[in-house]
Amino acid sequence: MDVLLHLIWLHTLRVFSAAYAATHYNCNSPLVSILPQSSFQSSSQSSNSFAAHNAKLNRRGGAGGWSPMVTDRDPWLQVDLRDQMKVTAVATQGCSISSDWVSRYLLLYSDTGQVWKQYRQEDGGGTFVGNVNSDDVIPNKLSHSMRTRFLRFVPVDWNPSNWLGLRVEVYGCSYKSDVADFDGRSSLLYRFNQKSMSTVKDVITLRFKSRQAEGVLLHGEGQRGDYITLELHRGKLAFYLNLDDTRQRFSSSCVAVTVGSLLDDQHWHSVIIERFNKQVNLTVDSHTQHFQTQGEGDSLEVDYELSFGGIPLPGKPGTFLRKNFHGCMENLYYNGINIIDLAKRRKPQIYSVGKVTFSCSQPQLVACTFLSSSSSFLSLPVASAIMGGFSIRFQFRTWNPDGLLLSTQLSPEHQRLELLISNSRLLLTLHNFGQQLEASAGHRVNDGLWHSVSLDTRSLQITLTLDNEAASTIEQWEQLEARGSFYFGGCPPTGFQTPTLAFQGCIRLIAINSQPVNLNHIQQGLLGNYNELQFDTCNIRDRCLPNLCEHGGRCWQSWTSFSCDCSGTGYSGATCHKSIYESSCEAYKLIGSSSGFYSIDPDGSGPLGPALVYCNMTEERVWTVLTHNITAPVRVQGSSLQKPHIMMLNYSASAKQLRTIITGSEQCQQEVVYNCRKSRLFNTKDGRPLSWWVDQGGERRSYWGGFLPGVQQCSCSLEENCIDMNYFCNCDADIDTWANDTGVLSYKDHLPMSHIVIGDTNRTGSEAIYRIGPLRCYGDKSIWNAASFYQESSSLLFPTLRAELAFDISFYFKTTANSGVFLEIMGHKDFIRVELSSPSVVTFSFDVGNGPAVLSVKSHLPLNDRQWHYVRAERNVKEASLQVNQLPLRFLDAPADGHRHLRLSGQLFVGGTASQQRGFLGCIRTLTFNGVTFDLEERAKMVPGVSSGCPGYCSSSSSLCHNSGKCIEKSSGYTCDCSQSAFGGPTCKEVVSVSFDRESSMTFTFQEPFSVMQNRSSQASSARRESISRAREDVAFTFITSQSPALLLTVNTFSQQYVAVILTHNGSLQIWYHLQTHRTPDVFSPILSSLADGQIHRIRIHREGKDLYVQIDQDIHKKYTLSSDAELILIRSLTLGKVIRRDNFQEEVLLAGSKGFIGCLSSVQFNNVAPLKAALLNRGSSLVTIRGPLMQSNCGALADSITSKNLRGNTHPQPSQAKDGKESNDADSNNFMSRQLVTTFWQPAATFWEECWEHCPCNHAVFFYSMMKVCGFRYISYRPKRQVTKKH
User: Fold this and answer.
1) Burial class (CB in 10 A: 0-12, 13-18, 19+), 1095
2) pLDDT at 1224 over 50
3) How far apart are CA 596 and CA 69, in angstroms?
């Protein structure tokens, strides 16, 4: 249905396009060359020879163009086209025979020549490229045409060696329209010929402009509950549509589809509504929403009439249920009927309510824009007031949560009045001889809407009124008078300074003491003073429309930029593009993870979200297990083909996620356990299936494992062990005893099973019991998909890529070459290129229309060392980044108002370039673009100079190095670099364990503040990043203890933040996050049972922003939400065991820290640091501080010993009972752990002890025993040949 609907829409749009093209087949005629001199105006002219009317393209009269005065602060050239025209392109030249030209300019348009709006291309770019000399004509085609009468060219840059000069041409055609003007109390009713109108398809088009943020444009309803309503609400278009759903009535509870923003800007906006049955397209300007409407029917049934401009109250003409539209509409069509034309011709189908006129004569409200948050201001003189004091009124709109709106000095002296936006509220402050009196108003006044402010001091109180809210007041003792000037938006450099940011936004309708202020006089220099202002326009933009935050990220904006809140999305980055999860269980194993539940993102940064799976890593293969909702065996009785038993399986992943996981796996399978008694799978007479299953594509399947699709047999037939060899399934023998036809489905294209249907259990004694196992897959085909390039002129070609707004490219490479291009893709001007530019430098370069941008990462070690190196490049509308191995990321911020769309048309070249020069020599694997992995091996089979796979020990899927260890190629073999792993040994599999006693502690001090290990391309971007959290921690460790409370691990920062993992007094685990020092910490208890049980426990903690994921062993998985997404700023140290310094720990953490930790810790990992291993390898380092005894050990052996000891019972001599019972228990725990440690880890020492006891002088044995006591071992759990007594 969706495909059919899409085809119908395409056909409809093509018909409309063809008709429109027939009318405007040549809409590129020059419009300026025929204009009279009076059509040209300018901000100034340097002389009569450079007057505005000389600015026609190729004009050589006068001085051959327009040029303003050198003192002109805001130069512009204006063209009046004399009527509404459709404009499709513009072109510019410099002044004839001169060095004056404009290299970049803005284009503004207006219906009246008073209120202007900046034209922006579809990708958001608002600056047009101009000239580089005086005579060449530089055309600029508009990405979308505009309907306007006035155009204004505003130079931004010009010849830096001389001055600016301009000649212009505008291309387009005439534009005719039918216009209706609604005054806020009027409407047009289109009445049907019959009682009701029922339609399955509707097309409604119109254009409108308004200065009001509220108002109904269209409404119709029917008695059965259908309705259709289009209205302006808070400057956006809200669309309500319901089809035959009596439960839904037009009310505040109805959900609207919202499109557009800032539509009350007094400029024309186009609307197209297309409906076919329940499917709807709603387009406002260039933004389209596709959705399916509510209701049970497919037709829209409207009674009597459609209303345009308001919702009249039945029986009461001129009264309305909701606020009416106040503005103009043009070219209003309902299913091909021209409503305004019928109204103009007074046709009987149209009934007018109130006054509707047929010309657009809306009064224009002129505004000015404050451009800079640091230097914009407008100063106006104080006007005299009749009654003393003063009053000020104005309207403003902004996105910024802070900014100074108004300030003035007062009489008597040393007093000042300030009105500012603070934390999105209005705050009025009277500075009075060192004191501050305040009043506030409003809530979230930075919502982009117009807000009215009134300030009055003409009585013994200061009154602040916002919109229609109740007034706020500040009482005063005497009449206040303003002295000097009123400063709007900011202060001049020589005036009094405030720490508040200047206002960025729009202001209009300024009145001082009830006298309106003429903004034109200010611009002409006749009134007041100003800086960094733009007149005649409110240049506000909604940077969150469209929402450029991906994967459901929430968009926040200021006047100059936007940011994305990625909390809870599973993605990170400036636009929530990068997945925080690995793509497969295989990838998790490569980074050192163990079996457990994980979220995997099978298409990375693609549109599919993460899926929760179980990764089984206990076997040689890594299995991905996807469960469904039917896990227990199901008994079936009484089913037949007419009334079959049907069970639907719902998996832990969506259908698209399942398909992606299956496609990317080497092999998948699903077990079906089927037990039957007098229940057949196939009809024994004609072979028709009596039971079957349905695959993920909806196709019926009747094979039950062991055979290829289409063969209606069971596993016993393949194995030749069916009960009755006359049948291909055991169940088909139809016997009274239980039979089994269990099988494993393994044909990937049909997996997983979505339904199972049982149809033969309705006979006496018939029944079946089945159980459907989870989907199990192994192998990640993408990880080791590689190609070898051994000719510089050879490359792999792939189709062009769509990467307009965001893309990421990642791959691994190894080479011995000094340089070479990894990949390149070109457009007409745009391009992407990633290359090894020197033996130690990787470079990422691209161009989206703002000029080439280059990012480079330099390694301190050569990258052409025959080892695998990781590269990831990303570009989005906010920034570009480049990552190489574990080196600090490099970032480059995108221009604030530059081009956004990357337009590529050429093929993707991998291993070379289109010019066949600078090709790459070496291996590339795991090449991924926006979550899609390229099959390099298959493509390499067809290209000379390239071969599939990559030679070397480290180039296969076999896990030579484990737990994040890096495989290093050698001339004859390989070695494993375990420096980034918490494990050791030749293959990074040996557990690094250390035994602690009560006084033991190990502190690892980070060599540099950890949070500043990311270098950036510009310091200016750091302030912006405060709102974009990149906070992430990965913590993992294993422990054994019988002690509680205990401190396992703590991380401290220089800014008094900390993370602590403790065992409470009852042995339960607690995780403390103290990210904001002025707030109480977040505390989480994932498990209430005791972990101080002498067993091995594995803890994994992962944080991404506010999301905290905790895994305990393999069976406990919890997700929590932190109160803050703040980063750990300037990480100082990580401590294991007893904490000496108190810092700002809470009491419970202090108690655990004072008790220390008695037991064994192993495999400790914090992000990319393995502190426990670092401590053992660098005992003399200044970065490692050790207190008390630490001894390398084996936690697994210790756990076995403790378990064995608990089973046998404690036969060792007990310490004397302490007076304090609690202290005695702690001591006993300490002694017990110590005895076990001696038994397990000191067997060589025990042998020496026995020999020493037999043959050495007593003082030697006493010395050895003393050394053991120093190490914390007071009792020995084995019995030597001679009894040890305390007197020795």
Assistant:
1) middle
2) no
3) 73
